[in-house]
Amino acid sequence: MSDYPLLPDRHPQGDFFVCDIFDAAPKGDIGSMEHPIFSLSTKPDHRPRKYSHNGITVEVKPGPDGLATVHDRDVLIFCISNLIRGINEGKEPQQVVRFHASDLLKATNRMTTGRGYELLKGAIERLAGTRINTNISTGGQEVFENFGLIERARIVRETRDGRMQEVEIKLSDWVFNAVRAQEVLTLHKGYFRLRKPLERRIYELARKHCGRQSEWRIGLDTLHKKCGSGSSLREFRRLVGAIAKEDQEFGHMPDYQIRVDDEKNQLHVVSRGTVTAETSAVVEIPPLDPDVYEMAREAAPGWDVRMIEQEWRGWASELPKNPEMAFLGFCRKWFKKRGRP
To answer: What is the rounded CA–CA span in Å between residue 272 and residue 269?
Structure first.
């Protein structure tokens, strides 16, 4: 169907990631989901942007290749998801992330042709070039210096025809602090099939503000501001109305119904009841090996490790591949943060 609003499912998989190490759900950092860090433009955007709302300020400056876009955000989502999966397995997160380019392309529903690799390279360059000043804190810390979303990137290996094989990315302190503090939300994998940048931005805001609530409303004037749209308010309302009309016809928006209340000049978001990944009830971690508790006492001396285990089970949002190692990792972080009781 030519007028169907979603991109094709280019790499149908049972899981989000394509190999065992990447079988976690996609995660986005809360800071850039709530505030307009990324450009909605599909063409090079060289306009500096300033945003201020309820005491939060964001200043975004483009690099030589323009501002990082909503679609460029896929790279960050992939890196963050990788790190969160490791944390859930008890691994210490590292600020430098290495991955196979083909894994990212498949996981984020991108083309794996030469054009797909070219677009990925452009996304990485814009992410590194875009500079940000903001008072948004991540992990309880404000990063006052001018920073990029990624500090550096390099291609570790290339094929003979110039395609990337392995890529190494160093996340900014701002993004990495959010990962370590678990300031992330699970995204529906259908997010990567949304064609329009504005659709993705509306989904991000709905995921952040509506969450598991039954509904959420926001004035279109405020939505225009929080989306960081460069369109006039009149044109923005038309674009949002078109998305709502398509969603009413096709139901294509993940997790939420999108409607426009013309009478109240509001976007009306209604949960489809599919956002359940963060509820602890859906994560059934089997009983741990009894031998792990002695190691847990060494990892968190002085603490009641059964109490820590209850906290860990309530905190976990996914079933760890190795529950014992994940629990020990949680105990070490617990002790590092709190010391002896």
So the answer is: 10
Distance CA 311, CA 318 (A): 14
How many beta carbons lie within 10 A of that of residue 161, not counting itself?
7
Nearest to 81 by CA among 175, 212, 12: 175
Q: Pull the structure tokens for residue 60.
A: 């975004």
341 residues of the chain, pLDDT tens digit each: 457 788 888 877 544 444 333 445 788 888 899 899 999 999 999 999 999 987 889 999 999 999 999 999 999 999 999 998 888 888 889 999 999 999 999 999 999 888 999 999 999 999 999 999 998 888 777 777 788 899 999 888 877 776 788 999 999 999 999 998 888 888 998 999 999 999 999 999 999 989 888 999 999 999 999 999 999 999 999 999 999 999 999 999 999 999 999 999 999 999 999 886 543 334 567 889 989 999 999 999 999 998 888 778 766 666 788 889 999 998 998 898 888 88
| Residue spans per domain, the chain | 20-191, 195-271, 281-338
User: What CA–CA distances, in Å, run from 169 to 96, 176, 281?
Assistant: 6, 12, 35
Choose the CATH number for 195-271 among 2.30.280, 1.10.10, 3.30.420, 1.20.144: 1.10.10
The structure's pTM equals 0.78
CA distance 82 to 148: 20
